[in-house]
């Protein structure tokens, strides 16, 4: 039921995800500007803007600018149809030092917009971008010219769009609802991991928790929803937080798979390869905030490239485990398959090897949520295995405990079980019974017949105790037995002892005593007063001794404590 509900919840989430995503082209028309952009570089804003339009680079590698100031100019006539209504310009708020946006109009006028870090934070959008208002004038907008100081990623240029404020606001609202739903869904496995780890203490739950927390953080940072909780967070911190969150997710996924797969499913070479791949990914993620000038435009590419070996290694790991008939590998393959496809497409898009779309972001979020929830099905399957193993261990322990406390010959409780009773409580009676002249039976009939006599006596005493209303019968060793039975008064104790003696005395004539020599027993008994069991045993044993001295085949009740 738990897994079924999770899958139902996942279906609901996907229906919400597909709704806004499918409606985006119709409800939120926007004009992508990257394909029509041409670039240039310079040592200053003025130098970058001074580059003649005919000298701008419009080649395939135009966004790989190594200059301190990078410029991208878009002639809207080449970009497509400009959306109607009040316009906004949007792009990715990847780390940069400063940004200047110049808007060119058909009447030859221009407008400069100085974009600082606060604007990038204040005007955030739920698809991981921020927006700059485009002033409406009598003349139409003809070009957008942007100069960025020390951009850390090509995304600041490749994700430039022009859209209407009304439609963009509607799409932003829908995305916020979607991401809030995703975050709420991701909280469920996090809570379950914490609760189950407290109960079971299984290590794989911690790694699943790391995977779920990493996915939640990535959703918050990458979508911009973190702005709701921390409005003043710098854009670059949010950018680096996204990569660190992905690293946490990748590390949790790999270590979770190692921990939950059945023994022998993870080969040493695959384990070593994935460990090194995760380590390299984490190292690169921690290098991103340092902004090394030599790696300024390459750091993001290096990071996304470092994700590919992890995806490939996981594919090999799950493929080998599946071929080895691993049940868990089937769950993990279903959970990880979407991320393999969406993650690879996202990496290729970041590297400009694949056309980029906002749908990639939604697909990646959905794949991460499926990874967390789908892998939780593997956790549920592992719980069932653990429960079966614990039940088997509990039954085995119970059997071993019963064997340790059972006499191997007669099947009665043994001396070890008797010694576990610390006190003789009120309302109980302790009877010590000993077969009279048992050594003579062994000498006359042999030890095999003697063992048969012991078993016959054990069954007879058990039957007599059941007739008295119940109790426990122990074989203390040799021909000596102990009986604990309810006896509130001395008369009840005397009657119980006499009933057991008579049952043994008449047992040789019973139908179950074929070819059994006649035997008698002597019984010593003591009334329970809450005394320590070893004190009660000494009293009953003294009474047994007096029964033997008095002629055997009789019962004696102890009068009081033995000195």
Q: How would you summarize the topology of this molecule?
A:
Elements: H1 2-27, E1 30-32, E2 37-42, H2 45-50, E3 69-75, H3 76-79, E4 87-91, E5 98-105, E6 110-115, H4 117-122, E7 130-133, E8 141-149, H5 155-158, E9 161-164, H6 165-200, H7 203-223, H8 226-229, H9 235-260, H10 268-287, H11 299-323, H12 327-350, H13 358-404, H14 415-418, E10 423-424, E11 428-435, H15 438-445, H16 447-468, E12 472-477, E13 480-486, H17 490-507, E14 521-527, E15 531-532, H18 533-549, E16 555-557
Helix pairs in contact: 1-6, 1-13, 6-7, 6-13, 7-9, 7-13, 9-10, 10-11, 11-12, 12-13, 15-16, 16-17
CATH architectural group of the largest domain = Up-down Bundle
Average pLDDT, to the nearest integer? 84
Rounded to an integer in angstroms, the radius of gyration calculated over CA atoms is: 42 Å
CATH topology of the largest domain: Rhopdopsin 7-helix transmembrane proteins
Could you explain the architecture of this structure?
The structure is a single chain. The chain has 563 residues and is an alpha+beta fold. It folds into 3 domains: 2-12 and 168-394, Rhopdopsin 7-helix transmembrane proteins; 30-82 and 84-159, Jelly Rolls (Sandwich); 415-557, Reverse transcriptase/Diguanylate cyclase domain (Alpha-Beta Plaits), CATH 3.30.70.270. It contains 18 helices and 16 strands. It is rod-shaped.
Keywords:
3 domains, 16 strands, alpha+beta, Alpha-Beta Plaits, five-stranded antiparallel beta sheet, 563 residues, Jelly Rolls, Rhopdopsin 7-helix transmembrane proteins, rod-shaped, disordered N terminus
């Amino acid at each position: 039921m738990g897994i079924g509900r999770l899958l139902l919840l996942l279906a609901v989430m996907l229906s919400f995800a597909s709704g806004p995503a499918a409606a985006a082209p119709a409800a939120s028309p926007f004009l992508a500007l990257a394909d029509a952009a041409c670039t240039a570089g310079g040592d200053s804003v003025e130098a970058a803007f001074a580059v003649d339009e005919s000298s701008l680079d419009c080649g395939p590698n135009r966004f790989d600018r190594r200059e301190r100031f990078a410029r991208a100019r878009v002639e809207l006539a080449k970009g497509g149809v400009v959306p109607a209504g009040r316009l906004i310009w949007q792009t990715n708020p990847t780390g940069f030092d400063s940004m200047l946006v110049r808007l060119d109009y058909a009447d030859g006028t221009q407008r400069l917009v100085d974009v600082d870090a606060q604007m990038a934070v204040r005007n955030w959008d739920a698809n991981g971008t921020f927006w700059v208002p485009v002033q409406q004038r009598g003349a139409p907008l003809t070009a957008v010219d942007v100069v960025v100081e020390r951009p850390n990623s090509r995304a600041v240029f490749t994700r430039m769009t022009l859209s209407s404020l009304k439609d963009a606001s509607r799409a932003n609202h829908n995305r916020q609802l979607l991401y809030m739903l995703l975050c709420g869904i991701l909280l469920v496995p996090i809570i379950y991991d914490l609760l189950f780890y407290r109960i079971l203490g299984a290590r794989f739950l911690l790694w699943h928790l790391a995977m779920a927390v990493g996915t939640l953080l990535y959703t918050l940072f990458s979508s911009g929803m973190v702005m709701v909780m921390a409005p003043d967070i710098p854009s670059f911190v949010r950018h680096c937080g996204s990569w660190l969150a992905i690293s946490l997710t990748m590390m949790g996924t790999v270590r979770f798979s190692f921990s939950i797969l059945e023994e022998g499913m993870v080969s040493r070479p695959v384990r070593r390869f994935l460990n090194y791949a995760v380590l390299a990914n984490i190292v690169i993620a921690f290098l991103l905030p340092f902004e090394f000038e030599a790696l300024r435009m390459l750091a993001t590419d290096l990071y996304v490239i470092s994700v590919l070996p992890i995806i490939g290694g996981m594919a090999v790991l799950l493929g080998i485990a599946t071929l080895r008939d691993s049940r868990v590998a089937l769950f993990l393959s279903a959970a990880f398959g979407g991320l393999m496809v969406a993650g690879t497409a996202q990496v290729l898009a970041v590297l400009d090897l694949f056309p980029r779309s906002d749908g990639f972001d939604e697909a990646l979020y959905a794949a991460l949520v499926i990874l967390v929830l789908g892998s939780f099905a593997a956790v549920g399957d592992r719980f069932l295995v653990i429960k079966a193993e614990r039940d088997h261990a509990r039954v085995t322990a119970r059997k071993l405990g019963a064997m340790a406390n059972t006499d191997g010959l007669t099947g009665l409780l043994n001396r070890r079980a008797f010694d576990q009773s610390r006190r003789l409580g009120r309302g109980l009676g302790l009877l010590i019974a000993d077969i009279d002249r048992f050594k003579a039976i062994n000498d006359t009939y042999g030890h095999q017949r003697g063992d048969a006599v012991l078993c016959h006596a054990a069954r007879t005493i058990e039957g007599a105790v059941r007739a008295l209303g119940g109790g426990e019968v122990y074989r203390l060793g040799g021909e000596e037995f102990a009986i604990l039975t309810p006896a509130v008064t001395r008369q009840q104790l005397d009657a119980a002892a006499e009933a057991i003696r008579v049952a043994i005395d008449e047992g040789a004539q019973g139908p179950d005593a074929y070819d059994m020599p006649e035997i008698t027993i002597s019984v010593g008994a003591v009334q329970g007063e809450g005394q320590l069991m070893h004190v009660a045993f000494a009293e009953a044993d003294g009474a047994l001794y007096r029964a033997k001295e008095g002629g055997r085949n009789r019962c004696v009740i102890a009068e009081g404590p033995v000195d």
